[in-house]
Structure formats: structure tokens, C-alpha cells
Amino acid sequence: xxxxxxxxxxxxxxxxxxxxxxxxxxxxxxxxxxxxxxxxxxxxxxxxxxxxxxxxxxxxxxxxxxxxxxxxxxxxxxxxxxxxxxxxxxxxxxxxxxxxxxxxxxxxxxxxxxxxxxxxxxxxxxxxxxxxxxxxxxxxxxxxxxxxxxxxxxxxxxxx
Length: 160
Prior knowledge:
By secondary structure, this protein is α/β, with parallel strands linked by helices. It has helices at 57-69, 142-152, and strands at 4-7, 17-18, 21-27, 33-38, 44-45, 48-50, 72-82, 87-92, 98-102, 105-114, 124-130, 158-159. It is globular, with a radius of gyration of 15 Å. The two termini are 28 Å apart.
């Protein structure tokens, strides 16, 4: 079973925990945004993942972007934090059963340093740079669409 995201869904299971995560709104010199297509559900997302013990949230963003895309970045700022209890994420944890988490994600602004982008074929099937005008037609989960819109909004930081 792939990852399943529930958003304000009365059929969502009750969350049993939270794991801090990070997404990176990576922009290049042309203002394009780096997105990846997930292998498990085919949706486009900003690169990111779980915070590991012993690292800062900025270090996690740099590591996750490198692992998923091959792109090197520098974190340049804070875009938002997302803790909506209405967003429940279910992972199949193999023989140990399901893991059901409430969203807890920090979104950081980042700038491209090197690398064209390549899929890792474990978590990501495609890696592409998109002009913000190209995002409307992409297959994005509503939660990710909101995070991208917030990250691209010049008004500043958001907290949910």
C-alpha cells in the first residue's frame, strides 16, 4: 500500500503520532521551482522527508533534496509550518502494520547551487523544474498545492 494522505476526511483513521518533516521550496536563478513525482502515488511534490536524529531541519532539507534529486541547495529562509490535525498520513510499515501520523512539516526556502536534477527511482520517478505559471495543471495533492502557493507568496511566512 502506498502512502495515503487524508485531508479533512471523516473516513481518515485517527493519528497515533507525529514525525517532524521538511519540504524545500527550491528555486533556481530563473525563478523555477524544483518538484519531484513520487513513486508511490504519482503526485508531484516539493522534495523533502523526515528529520533524522542528530540533524537540524535545514540539514534535513539539504540531505533530502540531495537524496531525492541530486541537486545541491542552500537554505535561505523559513516559508511555513504545517501541523493541521485534519491532514492524516498513513504509511504501510510492512509486517508491523500501518503507521498513522498527523502532519508536522516545516517548509523552507532554498536556492539551487548545482545539479540538474535526476530521479532516485526509490522515492522519486521524475524530477523537473517548473515555472510557477506551469503548476496549475500538475497532479498535486491539495495539501502540497497549498504549501507551494504559500512558498511562492511574497507576503511571507505561514503557520497552520
